[in-house]
């Protein structure tokens, strides 16, 4: 498609960007995160967001056009990658973005200067060999402190079929934010396929049920969203 690009690292596709239509998201897991970023606040209301793992800045672009005026911060470990993306794939006009080069966890104190955040998106995990200092209760505790009282912490977990990492991260996040849900393509819950699943936790006392209704209606389809007792059963 004209104006659309795929970022590849070591031959593996990492991100998709449509410069002409930043609101168009190709990969399903990113589409789910985009839908969540649509429903968690009134439409077009600017938000303050922190992205841990920048990639091609797909979600930064999405928020810039869906929620103009949003203040965003992106943390990326690889300076060369971020320079390449910014030089090759210009951001939408009016994007308000602060970039930090560094490790996602150790950069939290610096990122906090532009917080608190309405949304924090963690998109780093890509298999069972997740960084231990990030895949931990301590990390989620530190990140949750940077959220507004009604903020949301969103985690993309790429995992193998056994879903060992998904289950461990579900337990870790729920220990910090009990109002956590797990959302993915329906077949992923069988534990037969590798893929991406989305964890999302809110600081509020309970996950808003109307969010669940909206997210399941928006898709991508087919999908399931587990919370409460259903998530207890899955996490065992």
TrEMBL record:
Classification via Gene3D superfamilies: Vaccinia Virus protein VP39
Statement: the UniProt record of this protein carries the keyword Ribosomal protein: no
Keywords associated with the record: Polyamine biosynthesis
InterPro entries assigned to the protein according to its UniProt record, in alphabetical order: SAM-dependent_MTases_sf
SUPFAM superfamilies in alphabetical order: S-adenosyl-L-methionine-dependent methyltransferases
Cross-referenced PANTHER family: THERMOSPERMINE SYNTHASE ACAULIS5 (PTHR43317)
Protein's UniProt name: SAM-dependent methyltransferase
């Amino acid at each position: 498609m004209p104006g659309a690009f795929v970022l590849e690292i070591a031959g593996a596709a990492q991100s998709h960007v449509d410069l002409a239509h930043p609101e168009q998201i190709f990969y399903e897991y990113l589409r789910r995160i985009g839908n969540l970023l649509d429903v968690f606040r009134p439409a077009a209301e600017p938000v303050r967001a922190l992205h841990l793992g920048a990639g091609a800045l797909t979600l930064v672009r999405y928020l810039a056009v869906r929620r103009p005026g949003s203040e965003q911060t992106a943390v990326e470990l690889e300076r060369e990658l971020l320079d390449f993306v910014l030089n090759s794939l210009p951001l939408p006009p009016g994007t308000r973005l602060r970039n930090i080069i560094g490790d996602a966890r150790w950069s939290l104190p610096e990122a906090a200067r532009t917080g608190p955040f309405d949304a924090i998106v963690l998109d780093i995990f890509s298999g069972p060999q997740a960084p231990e200092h990030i895949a931990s209760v301590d990390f989620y505790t530190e990140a949750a402190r940077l959220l507004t009282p009604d903020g949301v912490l969103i985690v993309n977990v790429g995992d193998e079929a056994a879903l060992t990492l998904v289950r461990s991260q579900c337990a870790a996040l729920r220990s910090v934010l009990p109002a956590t849900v797990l959302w993915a393509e329906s077949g992923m819950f069988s534990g037969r396929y590798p893929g991406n699943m989305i964890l999302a936790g809110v600081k509020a006392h309970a996950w808003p049920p109307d969010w669940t209704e909206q997210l399941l209606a928006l898709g991508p389809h087919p999908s399931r969203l587990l919370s409460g007792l259903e998530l207890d059963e899955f996490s065992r």
